[in-house]
Amino acid sequence: MEVLTDLVVIDDIVPKDYQNWIEQIVINQQTPWYYTPNCFHPNLKKDPRNVSGLFHYLYSQDTKQSPLFDALYPIVLSIGDKVKWNRMDKMDIDLFPKQKSSIYHLPHVSNFYKTGWTAIYYINDILAPDDGDTFVFDQKLEQFTIDESEKILKDNYFSVRNKVNPKKGRLIAFPSNYFHASSYASSTDRYTVTINLVNEDLNNE
Q1: How far is CA 203 from CA 35, 64, 143, 192, in A?
Q2: pTM (2 decimals)?
Q3: CA separation for the pair 6, 115 (Å, rounded)
Q4: CA distances (Å), 151 to each of 107, 109, 137, 185, 202, in order?
Q5: Which in 81, 111, 150, 177 has the greatest CB count within 10 A?
Q6: Phi, psi of 191, rounded to the nearest 5 degrees
């Protein structure tokens, strides 16, 4: 496990046989995908970073949304005490088809919980360097409000704090108030599992 300030990077968080099985059951003809235009912000439709994506929803509103949830939930259990959490808020699979692009996607925050964590599990390898990276920025919420988020987006100044290359079996986690962004991979489709976690005990203090 590697800890870079507020970023946790864990390679092979689950056994390799399980990694391969996850890849096989997700990347097949039977997984239903739901197309979402302008998937990072409903109103910034003209921003080229606000791309469309394909999603498979696993868990939200305290309810399983997919038969695949049980198969992938051990990823969450494997996080254990590496970050402080006691409730999962949301879990989904994200797919961005391969595409050549020189920019990262629209920076965003995952939720407005004061004690939230965003975790990203990489389903498949992207072997080319600087391809399909996840960017975590220095900019973050201090007031945890939508108005604050909109102001930071309007200012449109983002400095890269960490950049992580996708690797099958790798999981990263960071506080949800940090702005972050995905990016297209030009060499292959990019599959990830995004998990939003909350520590409700601290959130209520």
Answers
A1: 33, 23, 13, 27
A2: 0.93
A3: 13
A4: 12, 13, 15, 29, 26
A5: 177
A6: -115, 130
- d(CA 189, CA 11) in angstroms, rounded, equals 20
Count of beta carbons in the 10 Å neighbourhood of residue 83 = 17
Instruction: List the chain pLDDT tens, one digit each, 205 residues.
Output: 343 457 899 999 999 999 999 999 999 878 999 999 888 998 888 899 999 999 999 999 899 999 999 999 999 999 988 888 889 999 999 999 999 988 899 999 988 888 889 999 999 999 888 899 999 999 999 999 989 999 999 999 999 999 999 999 999 999 999 999 999 999 999 999 999 999 876 555 5
Centre a 10 Å sphere on the Cβ of residue 163 and count the other Cβ atoms it contains: 12
Matching residue, tokens 């912000």: 41
Q: Give the DSSP letter of residue 28.
A: S
